[in-house]
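Dissemination and training. As part of the outreach component of the grant, students in the summer workshop were shown how a complex can be specified as a set of sequence lines and then modelled as a single object. The example used during the hands-on session is reproduced here so that future cohorts can follow it. Participants entered these lines:
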Amino acid sequence: MFGVTRQFGQLVAVSLAAILAVSCGGKASDVQQHAEKIESLRATAVSVTTAWLAGDVSGIYAMTALERTFELVANERDAVASTPENLTLPAARDALRESEALTRTLGALWEAVGSADAASARRHLSELGPASSG
Amino acid sequence: MGAIVDLLLGIVTSIGGFVEAGSISTAAQAGAQFGFQLLWAIAAATAMLAMLIEMSGRLAAVSQRSIAAAVRERFGVKFQIVPLTGELIIDVLLMAAEIGGAATALTLLTGVHWQWFVIPIGAAVWAVLWWCGFGAIEYGLGLLGLVTLSFVVSAWRLQPSTASMAASFIPTMPTHHHAQYGFLAVSILGATVSPYLLNFYSSGSIEEEMTEKELWVNRTTSYLGMCFGGVVSMGVLVSSAMVLAPKHIVPDSFEQASLMLVPAFHRWAVPLFAASLGIGCFGAAVELALNAGYLFAQVFGWSWGANRPRRDAVRFSTAFVLVLCAALVVASIGFDPLRLTLLSVAFTVVIMPFVVLPFLVLMNDPTYVKQHVSGPIGNGLLAALTLLGGLLALVVIPLEILGG
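and obtained this result:
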Protein backbone atom coordinates (compact mmCIF):
# COMPACT_ATOMS: atom_id res chain seq x y z
CA MET A 1 0.00 0.00 0.00
CA PHE A 2 2.85 2.42 0.79
CA GLY A 3 4.21 1.66 -2.69
CA VAL A 4 0.90 2.84 -4.10
CA THR A 5 1.16 6.07 -2.07
CA ARG A 6 4.71 6.68 -3.34
CA GLN A 7 3.50 5.98 -6.88
CA PHE A 8 0.79 8.63 -6.52
CA GLY A 9 3.46 11.10 -5.43
CA GLN A 10 5.54 10.30 -8.50
CA LEU A 11 2.49 10.68 -10.72
CA VAL A 12 1.77 14.14 -9.28
CA ALA A 13 5.37 15.22 -9.98
CA VAL A 14 5.38 13.81 -13.51
CA SER A 15 1.97 15.35 -14.25
CA LEU A 16 3.16 18.78 -13.07
CA ALA A 17 6.11 18.47 -15.43
CA ALA A 18 3.75 17.44 -18.21
CA ILE A 19 1.52 20.49 -17.58
CA LEU A 20 4.59 22.68 -18.01
CA ALA A 21 5.50 20.85 -21.20
CA VAL A 22 1.99 21.29 -22.60
CA SER A 23 1.82 24.97 -21.77
CA CYS A 24 5.31 25.60 -23.19
CA GLY A 25 4.32 25.05 -26.79
CA GLY A 26 3.15 21.47 -27.25
CA LYS A 27 1.80 21.99 -30.80
CA ALA A 28 3.80 19.09 -32.17
CA SER A 29 2.61 16.78 -29.41
CA ASP A 30 -0.98 17.96 -30.00
CA VAL A 31 -0.69 16.99 -33.64
CA GLN A 32 0.88 13.69 -32.62
CA GLN A 33 -2.14 13.00 -30.37
CA HIS A 34 -4.56 13.74 -33.21
CA ALA A 35 -2.57 11.50 -35.54
CA GLU A 36 -2.78 8.67 -32.99
CA LYS A 37 -6.55 9.16 -32.69
CA ILE A 38 -6.94 9.06 -36.46
CA GLU A 39 -4.93 5.82 -36.52
CA SER A 40 -7.18 4.42 -33.78
CA LEU A 41 -10.26 5.36 -35.81
CA ARG A 42 -8.81 3.76 -38.95
CA ALA A 43 -8.25 0.55 -37.00
CA THR A 44 -11.83 0.79 -35.67
CA ALA A 45 -13.22 1.04 -39.21
CA VAL A 46 -11.21 -2.03 -40.21
CA SER A 47 -12.34 -4.03 -37.16
CA VAL A 48 -16.02 -3.10 -37.53
CA THR A 49 -16.11 -3.96 -41.24
CA THR A 50 -14.17 -7.19 -40.74
CA ALA A 51 -16.57 -8.23 -37.96
CA TRP A 52 -19.55 -7.42 -40.20
CA LEU A 53 -18.10 -9.42 -43.09
CA ALA A 54 -17.54 -12.36 -40.70
CA GLY A 55 -21.17 -12.16 -39.54
CA ASP A 56 -20.10 -11.29 -35.98
CA VAL A 57 -22.00 -8.00 -35.84
CA SER A 58 -25.27 -6.84 -37.35
CA GLY A 59 -25.58 -4.36 -40.21
CA ILE A 60 -27.35 -1.94 -37.85
CA TYR A 61 -24.43 -1.99 -35.43
CA ALA A 62 -21.82 -1.75 -38.20
CA MET A 63 -23.55 1.28 -39.73
CA THR A 64 -23.91 2.95 -36.32
CA ALA A 65 -20.27 2.33 -35.45
CA LEU A 66 -19.02 3.52 -38.86
CA GLU A 67 -21.15 6.66 -38.63
CA ARG A 68 -19.81 7.40 -35.14
CA THR A 69 -16.27 6.78 -36.37
CA PHE A 70 -16.92 9.19 -39.25
CA GLU A 71 -18.01 11.88 -36.75
CA LEU A 72 -14.93 11.33 -34.60
CA VAL A 73 -12.61 11.52 -37.64
CA ALA A 74 -14.31 14.77 -38.66
CA ASN A 75 -13.71 16.13 -35.14
CA GLU A 76 -10.03 15.21 -35.34
CA ARG A 77 -9.69 16.74 -38.81
CA ASP A 78 -11.26 19.98 -37.56
CA ALA A 79 -8.97 20.01 -34.54
CA VAL A 80 -5.84 19.52 -36.70
CA ALA A 81 -6.93 22.28 -39.07
CA SER A 82 -8.04 24.62 -36.28
CA THR A 83 -5.04 26.99 -36.52
CA PRO A 84 -2.82 28.14 -39.41
CA GLU A 85 0.16 27.46 -37.16
CA ASN A 86 -0.75 23.78 -37.02
CA LEU A 87 -0.80 23.53 -40.79
CA THR A 88 2.82 24.65 -41.03
CA LEU A 89 3.80 21.31 -39.46
CA PRO A 90 4.40 18.45 -41.92
CA ALA A 91 2.89 15.96 -39.44
CA ALA A 92 -0.31 18.01 -39.33
CA ARG A 93 -0.56 18.08 -43.13
CA ASP A 94 -0.08 14.28 -43.17
CA ALA A 95 -2.77 13.82 -40.49
CA LEU A 96 -5.14 16.04 -42.45
CA ARG A 97 -4.56 14.06 -45.66
CA GLU A 98 -5.07 10.78 -43.84
CA SER A 99 -8.26 11.97 -42.14
CA GLU A 100 -9.71 13.16 -45.45
CA ALA A 101 -8.97 9.83 -47.12
CA LEU A 102 -10.42 8.01 -44.12
CA THR A 103 -13.70 9.96 -44.17
CA ARG A 104 -14.12 9.13 -47.87
CA THR A 105 -13.53 5.43 -47.23
CA LEU A 106 -15.83 5.47 -44.19
CA GLY A 107 -18.60 6.96 -46.31
CA ALA A 108 -18.11 4.24 -48.90
CA LEU A 109 -18.05 1.50 -46.26
CA TRP A 110 -21.21 2.87 -44.63
CA GLU A 111 -22.95 2.73 -48.00
CA ALA A 112 -21.67 -0.78 -48.71
CA VAL A 113 -22.88 -2.10 -45.34
CA GLY A 114 -26.23 -0.33 -45.77
CA SER A 115 -26.80 -2.04 -49.10
CA ALA A 116 -25.39 -5.36 -47.77
CA ASP A 117 -22.75 -5.26 -50.55
CA ALA A 118 -19.96 -7.43 -49.11
CA ALA A 119 -17.82 -7.23 -52.28
CA SER A 120 -17.79 -3.43 -52.18
CA ALA A 121 -17.06 -3.48 -48.43
CA ARG A 122 -14.07 -5.82 -49.03
CA ARG A 123 -12.76 -3.55 -51.78
CA HIS A 124 -12.91 -0.44 -49.60
CA LEU A 125 -11.54 -2.36 -46.63
CA SER A 126 -8.39 -3.14 -48.59
CA GLU A 127 -7.83 0.63 -48.99
CA LEU A 128 -7.55 0.92 -45.20
CA GLY A 129 -4.85 -1.70 -44.66
CA PRO A 130 -4.71 -4.16 -41.75
CA ALA A 131 -6.33 -3.53 -38.33
CA SER A 132 -2.95 -3.32 -36.66
CA SER A 133 -0.18 -1.28 -38.18
CA GLY A 134 2.24 -2.69 -35.66
CA MET B 1 -31.11 -18.73 7.50
CA GLY B 2 -32.45 -15.25 6.72
CA ALA B 3 -29.03 -13.71 7.35
CA ILE B 4 -27.37 -16.23 5.00
CA VAL B 5 -29.87 -15.42 2.24
CA ASP B 6 -29.27 -11.68 2.84
CA LEU B 7 -25.54 -12.29 2.68
CA LEU B 8 -25.65 -14.23 -0.60
CA LEU B 9 -28.10 -11.79 -2.16
CA GLY B 10 -25.93 -8.87 -1.01
CA ILE B 11 -22.79 -10.36 -2.55
CA VAL B 12 -24.49 -11.30 -5.82
CA THR B 13 -26.13 -7.89 -6.24
CA SER B 14 -22.88 -6.11 -5.37
CA ILE B 15 -21.28 -7.91 -8.31
CA GLY B 16 -24.19 -7.07 -10.62
CA GLY B 17 -24.29 -3.44 -9.54
CA PHE B 18 -20.55 -2.75 -9.69
CA VAL B 19 -20.02 -1.93 -13.34
CA GLU B 20 -21.53 1.14 -15.00
CA ALA B 21 -20.54 3.79 -17.54
CA GLY B 22 -17.61 5.06 -15.46
CA SER B 23 -15.98 1.72 -14.76
CA ILE B 24 -16.52 0.44 -18.32
CA SER B 25 -15.10 3.56 -19.97
CA THR B 26 -12.11 4.01 -17.65
CA ALA B 27 -11.16 0.32 -17.67
CA ALA B 28 -11.61 0.10 -21.46
CA GLN B 29 -9.38 3.13 -22.04
CA ALA B 30 -6.83 1.95 -19.50
CA GLY B 31 -6.55 -1.49 -21.11
CA ALA B 32 -6.39 -0.12 -24.66
CA GLN B 33 -3.64 2.40 -23.85
CA PHE B 34 -1.58 0.74 -21.16
CA GLY B 35 -2.34 -2.99 -21.39
CA PHE B 36 -2.57 -4.56 -17.93
CA GLN B 37 -0.47 -1.77 -16.38
CA LEU B 38 -3.37 -0.07 -14.56
CA LEU B 39 -4.77 -3.23 -12.93
CA TRP B 40 -3.22 -1.98 -9.68
CA ALA B 41 -5.43 1.13 -9.83
CA ILE B 42 -8.60 -1.00 -10.00
CA ALA B 43 -7.31 -3.20 -7.16
CA ALA B 44 -6.42 -0.20 -4.96
CA ALA B 45 -9.70 1.60 -5.70
CA THR B 46 -11.71 -1.58 -5.03
CA ALA B 47 -9.94 -2.14 -1.70
CA MET B 48 -10.64 1.48 -0.78
CA LEU B 49 -14.30 1.13 -1.77
CA ALA B 50 -14.72 -2.11 0.20
CA MET B 51 -13.29 -0.45 3.33
CA LEU B 52 -15.50 2.62 2.95
CA ILE B 53 -18.64 0.59 2.20
CA GLU B 54 -18.02 -1.62 5.23
CA MET B 55 -17.66 1.53 7.37
CA SER B 56 -20.89 3.03 5.91
CA GLY B 57 -22.83 -0.10 6.82
CA ARG B 58 -21.22 -0.24 10.28
CA LEU B 59 -22.13 3.37 10.99
CA ALA B 60 -25.73 2.79 9.86
CA ALA B 61 -26.15 -0.49 11.75
CA VAL B 62 -24.73 0.82 15.03
CA SER B 63 -26.01 4.43 15.06
CA GLN B 64 -29.13 3.95 12.87
CA ARG B 65 -28.05 7.08 10.99
CA SER B 66 -26.95 7.52 7.41
CA ILE B 67 -23.63 9.31 6.70
CA ALA B 68 -25.36 12.55 5.65
CA ALA B 69 -27.58 12.59 8.76
CA ALA B 70 -24.65 11.82 11.08
CA VAL B 71 -22.40 14.48 9.48
CA ARG B 72 -25.17 17.05 9.82
CA GLU B 73 -25.64 16.13 13.47
CA ARG B 74 -21.90 16.10 14.27
CA PHE B 75 -20.68 19.09 12.23
CA GLY B 76 -23.84 21.15 11.57
CA VAL B 77 -25.71 22.08 8.40
CA LYS B 78 -23.33 24.95 7.50
CA PHE B 79 -20.36 22.59 7.40
CA GLN B 80 -22.27 20.26 5.12
CA ILE B 81 -23.09 22.85 2.46
CA VAL B 82 -19.77 22.35 0.61
CA PRO B 83 -19.86 18.52 0.41
CA LEU B 84 -23.61 18.55 -0.28
CA THR B 85 -23.26 21.02 -3.16
CA GLY B 86 -20.23 19.20 -4.56
CA GLU B 87 -21.91 15.82 -4.29
CA LEU B 88 -25.12 17.06 -5.90
CA ILE B 89 -23.25 18.61 -8.85
CA ILE B 90 -21.31 15.40 -9.36
CA ASP B 91 -24.53 13.35 -8.95
CA VAL B 92 -26.21 15.37 -11.71
CA LEU B 93 -23.20 15.03 -14.04
CA LEU B 94 -22.83 11.32 -13.33
CA MET B 95 -26.55 10.73 -13.75
CA ALA B 96 -26.48 12.53 -17.10
CA ALA B 97 -23.51 10.36 -18.11
CA GLU B 98 -25.28 7.16 -16.97
CA ILE B 99 -28.46 8.11 -18.85
CA GLY B 100 -26.29 8.84 -21.91
CA GLY B 101 -24.61 5.44 -21.46
CA ALA B 102 -27.95 3.62 -21.23
CA ALA B 103 -29.16 5.53 -24.31
CA THR B 104 -26.00 4.57 -26.22
CA ALA B 105 -26.65 0.91 -25.32
CA LEU B 106 -30.01 1.18 -27.07
CA THR B 107 -28.33 2.88 -30.04
CA LEU B 108 -25.98 -0.09 -30.41
CA LEU B 109 -29.00 -2.37 -30.79
CA THR B 110 -31.32 -0.16 -32.85
CA GLY B 111 -29.15 2.29 -34.76
CA VAL B 112 -31.37 5.18 -33.58
CA HIS B 113 -29.38 8.22 -32.31
CA TRP B 114 -28.87 8.04 -28.52
CA GLN B 115 -30.43 11.43 -27.82
CA TRP B 116 -33.86 10.06 -28.82
CA PHE B 117 -33.69 7.70 -25.82
CA VAL B 118 -32.74 10.25 -23.15
CA ILE B 119 -36.29 11.26 -22.16
CA PRO B 120 -37.78 7.71 -22.32
CA ILE B 121 -34.92 6.45 -20.10
CA GLY B 122 -35.52 9.34 -17.69
CA ALA B 123 -39.20 8.35 -17.58
CA ALA B 124 -38.23 4.73 -16.89
CA VAL B 125 -35.90 5.83 -14.05
CA TRP B 126 -38.73 7.90 -12.59
CA ALA B 127 -41.18 4.98 -12.88
CA VAL B 128 -38.82 2.61 -11.04
CA LEU B 129 -38.23 5.18 -8.30
CA TRP B 130 -41.91 5.95 -7.96
CA TRP B 131 -43.34 2.44 -7.88
CA CYS B 132 -40.57 0.20 -6.55
CA GLY B 133 -39.39 -0.26 -2.97
CA PHE B 134 -35.73 -0.36 -1.95
CA GLY B 135 -35.47 -4.17 -2.20
CA ALA B 136 -36.81 -4.28 -5.75
CA ILE B 137 -34.42 -1.50 -6.82
CA GLU B 138 -31.34 -2.95 -5.11
CA TYR B 139 -31.87 -6.66 -5.77
CA GLY B 140 -33.77 -6.45 -9.06
CA LEU B 141 -31.25 -4.23 -10.82
CA GLY B 142 -28.32 -6.02 -9.15
CA LEU B 143 -29.47 -9.43 -10.37
CA LEU B 144 -30.05 -8.12 -13.91
CA GLY B 145 -26.56 -6.62 -13.74
CA LEU B 146 -25.03 -10.09 -13.53
CA VAL B 147 -24.91 -9.90 -17.33
CA THR B 148 -21.73 -7.82 -16.78
CA LEU B 149 -19.99 -11.08 -15.87
CA SER B 150 -19.67 -11.46 -19.65
CA PHE B 151 -16.54 -9.25 -19.35
CA VAL B 152 -14.98 -11.77 -16.98
CA VAL B 153 -15.92 -14.67 -19.28
CA SER B 154 -14.43 -12.74 -22.20
CA ALA B 155 -11.17 -12.13 -20.31
CA TRP B 156 -10.98 -15.81 -19.31
CA ARG B 157 -11.61 -16.99 -22.89
CA LEU B 158 -8.87 -14.70 -24.22
CA GLN B 159 -6.34 -16.53 -21.99
CA PRO B 160 -4.20 -13.62 -20.81
CA SER B 161 -0.77 -14.27 -19.30
CA THR B 162 -1.31 -14.68 -15.56
CA ALA B 163 2.30 -13.66 -14.87
CA SER B 164 1.84 -10.34 -16.71
CA MET B 165 -1.42 -9.70 -14.90
CA ALA B 166 0.08 -10.51 -11.51
CA ALA B 167 3.02 -8.17 -12.19
CA SER B 168 0.57 -5.35 -12.96
CA PHE B 169 -0.71 -5.28 -9.40
CA ILE B 170 2.51 -3.49 -8.47
CA PRO B 171 2.35 0.13 -9.70
CA THR B 172 4.87 1.06 -12.36
CA MET B 173 5.35 4.20 -14.44
CA PRO B 174 4.49 3.96 -18.14
CA THR B 175 7.04 4.60 -20.87
CA HIS B 176 4.71 7.03 -22.69
CA HIS B 177 1.67 9.29 -22.14
CA HIS B 178 2.39 9.97 -18.46
CA ALA B 179 -0.40 12.55 -18.08
CA GLN B 180 -2.97 10.25 -19.64
CA TYR B 181 -1.80 7.47 -17.30
CA GLY B 182 -2.31 9.77 -14.29
CA PHE B 183 -5.70 10.90 -15.56
CA LEU B 184 -6.84 7.31 -16.03
CA ALA B 185 -5.57 6.30 -12.57
CA VAL B 186 -7.61 9.17 -11.09
CA SER B 187 -10.63 8.34 -13.23
CA ILE B 188 -10.53 4.68 -12.18
CA LEU B 189 -10.46 5.82 -8.54
CA GLY B 190 -13.40 8.19 -9.15
CA ALA B 191 -15.40 5.64 -11.12
CA THR B 192 -14.96 3.02 -8.40
CA VAL B 193 -15.19 5.09 -5.20
CA SER B 194 -18.12 7.36 -6.09
CA PRO B 195 -19.08 9.30 -2.93
CA TYR B 196 -22.76 8.70 -3.66
CA LEU B 197 -22.22 4.98 -3.03
CA LEU B 198 -21.30 5.63 0.61
CA ASN B 199 -24.44 7.51 1.55
CA PHE B 200 -26.55 5.23 -0.65
CA TYR B 201 -25.20 2.14 1.13
CA SER B 202 -25.68 3.59 4.62
CA SER B 203 -29.21 4.74 3.75
CA GLY B 204 -29.94 1.31 2.28
CA SER B 205 -28.75 -0.37 5.48
CA ILE B 206 -31.28 1.72 7.41
CA GLU B 207 -34.02 0.94 4.86
CA GLU B 208 -33.26 -2.76 5.38
CA GLU B 209 -33.25 -2.29 9.17
CA MET B 210 -29.74 -3.66 9.65
CA THR B 211 -28.75 -3.94 13.31
CA GLU B 212 -25.52 -4.23 15.26
CA LYS B 213 -25.98 -8.02 15.38
CA GLU B 214 -25.67 -8.17 11.59
CA LEU B 215 -22.29 -6.43 11.38
CA TRP B 216 -20.69 -9.67 10.20
CA VAL B 217 -23.15 -9.78 7.27
CA ASN B 218 -22.23 -6.19 6.45
CA ARG B 219 -18.48 -6.94 6.63
CA THR B 220 -18.69 -10.08 4.50
CA THR B 221 -21.00 -8.50 1.91
CA SER B 222 -18.82 -5.40 1.62
CA TYR B 223 -15.50 -7.15 1.20
CA LEU B 224 -16.61 -10.14 -0.90
CA GLY B 225 -19.16 -8.23 -2.99
CA MET B 226 -16.82 -5.38 -3.82
CA CYS B 227 -13.85 -7.66 -4.50
CA PHE B 228 -15.88 -9.79 -6.92
CA GLY B 229 -17.24 -6.55 -8.44
CA GLY B 230 -13.67 -5.34 -8.90
CA VAL B 231 -12.98 -8.55 -10.83
CA VAL B 232 -15.68 -7.51 -13.34
CA SER B 233 -13.92 -4.15 -13.87
CA MET B 234 -10.66 -6.02 -14.31
CA GLY B 235 -12.44 -8.21 -16.89
CA VAL B 236 -13.19 -5.05 -18.90
CA LEU B 237 -9.57 -3.89 -18.67
CA VAL B 238 -8.13 -7.28 -19.61
CA SER B 239 -10.55 -7.74 -22.55
CA SER B 240 -9.66 -4.27 -23.79
CA ALA B 241 -5.93 -4.91 -23.36
CA MET B 242 -6.15 -8.23 -25.23
CA VAL B 243 -8.44 -7.11 -28.07
CA LEU B 244 -8.25 -3.34 -28.58
CA ALA B 245 -4.64 -2.58 -27.63
CA PRO B 246 -3.01 -4.84 -30.27
CA LYS B 247 -5.14 -3.13 -32.93
CA HIS B 248 -4.20 0.35 -31.59
CA ILE B 249 -7.86 1.13 -30.94
CA VAL B 250 -8.30 3.61 -28.08
CA PRO B 251 -12.04 3.70 -27.40
CA ASP B 252 -13.36 7.25 -27.70
CA SER B 253 -16.90 5.93 -27.96
CA PHE B 254 -18.88 3.00 -26.57
CA GLU B 255 -19.28 1.78 -30.16
CA GLN B 256 -15.51 1.22 -30.28
CA ALA B 257 -15.40 -0.27 -26.77
CA SER B 258 -18.03 -2.88 -27.68
CA LEU B 259 -15.55 -4.48 -30.11
CA MET B 260 -13.65 -5.92 -27.13
CA LEU B 261 -16.23 -8.72 -26.73
CA VAL B 262 -16.24 -9.82 -30.40
CA PRO B 263 -13.43 -12.45 -30.23
CA ALA B 264 -15.06 -14.14 -27.22
CA PHE B 265 -18.75 -13.95 -28.12
CA HIS B 266 -18.92 -13.27 -31.89
CA ARG B 267 -22.56 -12.50 -32.83
CA TRP B 268 -23.55 -12.18 -29.14
CA ALA B 269 -20.81 -9.64 -28.45
CA VAL B 270 -22.70 -6.44 -29.22
CA PRO B 271 -25.98 -7.55 -27.53
CA LEU B 272 -24.02 -8.59 -24.41
CA PHE B 273 -22.05 -5.34 -24.35
CA ALA B 274 -25.23 -3.31 -24.86
CA ALA B 275 -27.05 -5.24 -22.11
CA SER B 276 -24.13 -4.79 -19.69
CA LEU B 277 -23.80 -1.09 -20.46
CA GLY B 278 -27.55 -0.46 -20.50
CA ILE B 279 -28.40 -2.30 -17.27
CA GLY B 280 -25.30 -1.02 -15.45
CA CYS B 281 -25.99 2.58 -16.42
CA PHE B 282 -29.72 2.38 -15.77
CA GLY B 283 -29.13 0.90 -12.31
CA ALA B 284 -26.56 3.57 -11.48
CA ALA B 285 -28.93 6.35 -12.67
CA VAL B 286 -31.69 5.01 -10.38
CA GLU B 287 -29.28 4.81 -7.42
CA LEU B 288 -27.92 8.32 -8.08
CA ALA B 289 -31.40 9.82 -8.20
CA LEU B 290 -32.47 7.99 -5.07
CA ASN B 291 -29.31 9.10 -3.28
CA ALA B 292 -30.03 12.73 -4.22
CA GLY B 293 -33.40 12.36 -2.49
CA TYR B 294 -31.70 10.78 0.53
CA LEU B 295 -29.13 13.58 0.70
CA PHE B 296 -31.64 16.42 0.64
CA ALA B 297 -33.97 14.72 3.11
CA GLN B 298 -31.22 13.73 5.56
CA VAL B 299 -29.46 17.10 5.50
CA PHE B 300 -32.65 19.10 5.96
CA GLY B 301 -34.32 16.63 8.33
CA TRP B 302 -37.25 15.56 6.12
CA SER B 303 -38.91 12.15 6.29
CA TRP B 304 -37.41 9.77 3.73
CA GLY B 305 -37.38 6.20 2.50
CA ALA B 306 -37.89 4.34 -0.76
CA ASN B 307 -40.16 1.93 1.12
CA ARG B 308 -42.49 4.67 2.33
CA PRO B 309 -45.60 5.60 0.37
CA ARG B 310 -44.62 8.65 -1.71
CA ARG B 311 -47.36 10.80 -0.11
CA ASP B 312 -45.65 10.26 3.28
CA ALA B 313 -42.32 11.57 1.99
CA VAL B 314 -43.35 14.30 -0.44
CA ARG B 315 -40.24 16.50 -0.13
CA PHE B 316 -37.93 13.47 -0.46
CA SER B 317 -39.78 12.36 -3.61
CA THR B 318 -39.81 15.90 -5.02
CA ALA B 319 -36.05 16.19 -4.44
CA PHE B 320 -35.16 13.06 -6.43
CA VAL B 321 -37.54 14.01 -9.23
CA LEU B 322 -36.01 17.51 -9.51
CA VAL B 323 -32.45 16.16 -9.54
CA LEU B 324 -33.46 13.62 -12.18
CA CYS B 325 -34.92 16.46 -14.29
CA ALA B 326 -31.65 18.43 -13.94
CA ALA B 327 -29.69 15.39 -15.15
CA LEU B 328 -32.06 14.97 -18.10
CA VAL B 329 -31.44 18.59 -19.10
CA VAL B 330 -27.65 18.02 -19.03
CA ALA B 331 -27.99 14.72 -20.94
CA SER B 332 -30.25 16.36 -23.55
CA ILE B 333 -27.64 19.04 -24.33
CA GLY B 334 -25.79 16.33 -26.23
CA PHE B 335 -22.38 16.06 -24.54
CA ASP B 336 -20.64 12.92 -25.73
CA PRO B 337 -21.62 10.30 -23.07
CA LEU B 338 -18.14 8.75 -22.85
CA ARG B 339 -16.28 12.06 -22.47
CA LEU B 340 -18.85 13.31 -19.95
CA THR B 341 -18.36 10.09 -18.00
CA LEU B 342 -14.57 10.38 -17.96
CA LEU B 343 -14.61 14.00 -16.79
CA SER B 344 -17.36 13.40 -14.20
CA VAL B 345 -15.53 10.50 -12.57
CA ALA B 346 -12.30 12.50 -12.48
CA PHE B 347 -14.09 15.44 -10.80
CA THR B 348 -15.52 12.97 -8.29
CA VAL B 349 -12.01 12.50 -6.90
CA VAL B 350 -11.72 16.26 -6.28
CA ILE B 351 -14.71 16.30 -3.92
CA MET B 352 -13.84 12.96 -2.33
CA PRO B 353 -11.79 14.44 0.56
CA PHE B 354 -14.76 16.64 1.56
CA VAL B 355 -16.96 13.54 1.83
CA VAL B 356 -14.52 10.93 3.11
CA LEU B 357 -12.60 12.89 5.76
CA PRO B 358 -15.64 13.93 7.91
CA PHE B 359 -16.85 10.35 7.56
CA LEU B 360 -13.55 9.06 8.95
CA VAL B 361 -13.96 11.39 11.95
CA LEU B 362 -17.40 9.87 12.60
CA MET B 363 -15.94 6.37 12.39
CA ASN B 364 -13.63 7.24 15.31
CA ASP B 365 -16.37 8.72 17.47
CA PRO B 366 -17.77 6.21 19.99
CA THR B 367 -20.95 8.31 20.21
CA TYR B 368 -21.83 6.95 16.77
CA VAL B 369 -20.09 3.59 16.46
CA LYS B 370 -19.65 2.66 20.15
CA GLN B 371 -16.83 0.13 20.49
CA HIS B 372 -16.74 -0.47 16.72
CA VAL B 373 -14.37 2.43 15.94
CA SER B 374 -12.00 2.05 12.99
CA GLY B 375 -8.33 1.14 13.42
CA PRO B 376 -5.52 3.68 12.89
CA ILE B 377 -3.96 1.86 9.91
CA GLY B 378 -7.20 1.76 7.90
CA ASN B 379 -7.99 5.36 8.79
CA GLY B 380 -4.52 6.58 7.87
CA LEU B 381 -4.42 4.76 4.55
CA LEU B 382 -7.89 5.93 3.53
CA ALA B 383 -7.13 9.53 4.49
CA ALA B 384 -3.76 9.50 2.68
CA LEU B 385 -5.15 7.92 -0.50
CA THR B 386 -8.14 10.27 -0.52
CA LEU B 387 -5.95 13.36 -0.19
CA LEU B 388 -3.36 12.16 -2.71
CA GLY B 389 -6.13 11.23 -5.15
CA GLY B 390 -7.69 14.68 -4.76
CA LEU B 391 -4.33 16.39 -5.27
CA LEU B 392 -3.52 14.29 -8.31
CA ALA B 393 -6.98 15.01 -9.76
CA LEU B 394 -6.38 18.75 -9.41
CA VAL B 395 -3.21 18.32 -11.46
CA VAL B 396 -4.31 15.96 -14.20
CA ILE B 397 -7.82 17.27 -14.92
CA PRO B 398 -6.60 20.66 -16.27
CA LEU B 399 -3.93 18.78 -18.17
CA GLU B 400 -6.51 16.48 -19.78
CA ILE B 401 -8.77 19.41 -20.68
CA LEU B 402 -5.86 21.47 -22.05
CA GLY B 403 -4.54 18.51 -23.99
CA GLY B 404 -7.99 17.71 -25.44
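The mean pLDDT of chain A is 84. Students were then asked to discuss how this feature might be tested experimentally.
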